[in-house]
């Protein structure tokens, strides 16, 4: 399918492309990892939860990383061909730039299809799964949020534990105070115990061993002439104490906003948007995802003229200018999408004119370096 020259060009482009993709994803996800570690620290399976959230957010960052990667891949790959004068030799033998660019366009088509799947479906489903994991971590059973030597409040109960082993849900030296208001209070202590996790039928239960229970059935009234109610002290070998959850409801269905909707749903639900979003936001999100996919061939074509160097002039500024053009193009796509969502104006008036202008500029530059000789 590919000739030797095609495989050679692909190898030159794929090396910086893959490096850019790996580095950009690593940097983007590393920044989020710090917040994830803070969220999961001290909880069971914390590292598993961190990697789950990173995996769910990866498609979101792929939509940004893939266009940048193809741009830098073409820029550095063809710059190497130009500096070594291999392009001059190929053109002298009858192989022009469009012919050299053919394997890159095949790569662009593959990346566009991959980006369509990532941005159109994996990104919204991954974002929903990420939010579901965050909800689960922040709304777990109260006992799992406990830390050694720190008071924890859950509903009407306040408790503290001296030693906690999250690996097997066991604890030592537990103190629980339950303030029931006018109905009095209850104080429990236990030397050892274990947490029985929640099931489909019952919630989590603390099973305490060697426990003591001090119950007061009525709140004392210092101003009353009635005699104080004596507390009831009970010692027992084992006591089961049901626990509350910080939030026991199941996580909501997918589709709370436009970022959780697939590209197909964004198109068909424009006239019936979810409760927490607006039609203008859905339309701008749809156009933004389409632009991210179309920016892959645009940036590949835009990068080629900047990669070529002239034999008798030092064009060291070209790489810096190329990076500035890349940043400007990405910023224009993102900012026009935000402006369209906020203003309520049609994306065809705000988002597409700058994108079309950049496309015309890229094609004009590509035509000049391919079919015209400069003075």
Features:
375 residues, elongated
Explain what this protein looks like in three dimensions:
The chain is an alpha+beta fold. It folds into 2 domains: 4-139 and 253-371, no CATH class; 146-242, no CATH class. It has helices at 4-40, 46-83, 86-92, 97-138, 263-268, 279-307, 317-343, 347-350, 352-371, and strands at residues 152-154, 157-165, 170-179, 185-196, 205-216, 232-242. The chain is elongated, with a radius of gyration of 31 Å. The two termini are 38 Å apart. The model has no long low-confidence stretch (mean pLDDT 84).
- Count of DSSP H/I helices: 9
Quote the beta fraction: 15-25%
The main sheet comes to:
6 strands, antiparallel
Mean pLDDT reading? 84
Cα gyration radius (Å):
31 Å
Helical content (DSSP H or I, runs of 4+): 55-70%
Task: Give the SSE order as H and E letters.
Answer: HHHHEEEEEEHHHHH
Total number of distinct structural domains: 2
Q: What structural class do the secondary elements suggest?
A: alpha+beta
Distance between the termini: 38 Å
Query: Segments where pLDDT lies below 50 for 5+ residues?
Result: none
Overall number of strands: 6
Shape: elongated
**Strand line-up in the sheet with most strands:** 1-2-3-4-5-6
């Amino acid at each position: 399918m590919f000739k030797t020259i095609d495989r050679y060009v692909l190898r030159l482009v794929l090396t910086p492309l893959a490096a850019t993709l790996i580095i950009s994803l690593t940097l983007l996800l590393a920044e989020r990892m710090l917040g994830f570690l803070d969220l999961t620290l001290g909880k069971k399976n914390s590292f598993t939860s961190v990697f789950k959230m990173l995996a769910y957010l990866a498609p979101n960052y792929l939509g940004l990383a893939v266009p940048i990667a193809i741009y830098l891949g073409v820029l550095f790959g063809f710059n190497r061909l130009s500096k070594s004068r291999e392009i001059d030799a190929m053109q002298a033998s009858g192989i022009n730039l469009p012919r050299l660019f053919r394997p890159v366009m095949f790569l662009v088509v593959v990346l566009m299809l991959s980006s369509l799947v990532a941005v159109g479906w994996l990104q919204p489903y991954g974002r929903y799964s990420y939010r579901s994991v965050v909800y689960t971590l922040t709304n777990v059973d109260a006992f799992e949020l406990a830390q050694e030597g720190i008071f924890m409040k859950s509903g009407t109960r306040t408790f503290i534990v001296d030693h906690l082993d999250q690996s097997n849900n066991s604890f030592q030296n537990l103190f629980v105070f339950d303030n029931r208001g006018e109905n009095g209070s209850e104080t429990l202590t236990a030397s050892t115990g274990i947490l029985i996790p929640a099931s489909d039928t019952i919630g989590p239960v603390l099973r305490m061993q060697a426990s003591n229970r001090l119950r007061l059935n009525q709140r004392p009234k210092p101003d009353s002439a009635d005699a104080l109610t004596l507390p009831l002290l009970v010692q027992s070998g084992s006591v089961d104490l049901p626990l509350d959850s910080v939030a026991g409801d199941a996580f909501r269905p997918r589709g709370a906003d436009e970022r959780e909707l697939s590209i197909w749903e964004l198109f068909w639900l424009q006239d019936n948007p979810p409760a927490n979003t607006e039609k203008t936001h859905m339309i701008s999100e749809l156009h933004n995802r389409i632009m991210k996919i179309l920016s892959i061939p645009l940036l590949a074509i835009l990068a080629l003229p900047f990669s070529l160097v002239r034999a008798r002039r030092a064009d060291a500024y070209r790489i810096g200018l190329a990076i500035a053009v890349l940043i400007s193009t990405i910023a224009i796509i993102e900012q026009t999408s935000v402006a369209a969502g906020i203003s309520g104006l049609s994306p065809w008036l705000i988002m597409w004119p700058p994108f079309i202008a950049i496309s015309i500029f890229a094609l004009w530059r590509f035509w000049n370096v391919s079919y015209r000789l400069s003075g």
